[in-house]
């Protein structure tokens, strides 16, 4: 495990890689990897390797004390951790909670301000003020190859917080590369089907139950569509294709993972007959049912049906990011439902936002306290209050959904089902993920006029590329 600051050569490599990423663009939180649901559990067991968790300037006793969250007197000197984040103050309450628990540690948020995270890291290194922790905006493979992030395995194995915490099965699959745990989730971002209950009631349709099906979704969307009133069953939004269609493929047994990936995340099954049928199914909402507008039709009618908040559509996909506006601005009665049931299962959809300990940090033990703090009950409850999922399996946290102010008066059981059934969006540890054109091509097919058969050569080309990279880097796991 790296404990020294990056060398000049490594820093130069990071800068070069940063400029490359700027040209290519970053994919933010959309690239995460997992093949497991949050339904079953496992408990982390430590290996007692406390000394391995210490920096090279700390002795073994200091490292053991830090791992036990009982730092020595020397470690109680004031420490300021630089945390690279694009949340722009959204975590301020969480920073205060952490400071109250560890009074000698202060979190200084370093805003990204639209820059690639790697550039921010490199600039701070060059200035002699290295950052300690960062949210990740691209694939973790690049951060690992640049020598930027620590392997968290020895820290996690020595942490009483992790040892005493029950986590979902496959919890670290999204963040593990070549047997190294490179990150933990800063937040588990859930998604639900948003429902305009007023529009349903206007057409005499009852709110569906939480065990509703994809057939129910389609039938209701048709029932509540009234083009003369400018009302449609489904919002014309990329999220419908990105989230719902990908989840349906799993629900019907046509894919093992989100984004049409196979079981071990080595190949795409997007061009297989089952998934192609799923694509045709959603496309028919536009071409046959008329319950969802194409992009061109939506634009011609003033783009009203592209925003669920306008109240002109019955269903949309949303996550925690939509809740503030819905609470403040919606002029209609809205609620949430879990993703529908398919013929095989009822999976949900979730995104892990990776949080990594930087190799250049001068305060690694304190920085890991910030990472491990995310999995305490107080931090988990705060995140539930913001609309996020609990990342920890605990009856107290499950019960807390009923108390969270943000969900009062809403379908709380749907929120719990979405958390329990969630599949995690893949990407951060899949080679050539940025070249996988699953999203743009399906938007063009569903909402535009692109031929569905274009999916086949696109998928074959990417499968060949990622397979070659897996072989050359030994990335296949």
The helix tally amounts to 19
CATH class of the largest domain: Alpha Beta
Strand fraction: 5-15%
In quaternary terms, these chains amount to single chain
Mean pLDDT: 86
Main sheet, how many strands, which sense, barrel? Answer: 9 strands, mixed
Number of strands: 13
* Overall geometric form: globular
Low-confidence stretches: 1-70
CATH architecture of the largest domain: 3-Layer(aba) Sandwich
List the domain count as a whole number.
2
Using the coordinates shown, work out and report the CATH topology of the largest domain: D-Maltodextrin-Binding Protein, domain 2
Gyration radius, in Å: 23 Å
Measured distance between first and last alpha carbons: 20 Å
* CATH superfamily (homologous) name of the largest domain: Periplasmic binding protein-like II
Percent in helix: 25-40%
Helix- and strand-based class? alpha/beta
Biased composition (Low complexity): 28-69
Organism: Paenibacillus rhizovicinus
Keywords: Signal
Region (Disordered): 28-74
Characterization of this structure:
Residues 1-25 form the signal peptide. The chain has 477 residues and is an alpha/beta fold. The protein has two domains: 8-189 and 352-424, D-Maltodextrin-Binding Protein, domain 2 (3-Layer(aba) Sandwich), CATH 3.40.190; 191-350 and 431-473, 3-Layer(aba) Sandwich (D-Maltodextrin-Binding Protein, domain 2), CATH 3.40.190. The protein has helices at residues 8-24, 60-67, 92-101, 117-126, 140-145, 153-158, 160-163, 197-202, 214-223, 238-251, 273-289, 295-300, 323-329, 364-373, 377-385, 395-400, 412-421, 438-447, 455-473; strands spanning 41-43, 79-85, 105-111, 133-135, 166-168, 176-177, 180-181, 184-196, 232-234, 313-319, 334-337, 348-357, 422-424. Strands 2, 3, 4, 8, 9, 10, 11, 12 and 13 form a nine-stranded mixed beta sheet that branches. A hairpin with a 2-residue loop joins β6 and β7 (180-181). α1 runs antiparallel to α4, α10 (238-251) packs across α11 (273-289) and α11 (273-289) runs parallel beside α18. The radius of gyration is 23 Å and the shape is globular. The two termini are 20 Å apart. The model is unreliable at 1-70 (pLDDT under 50).
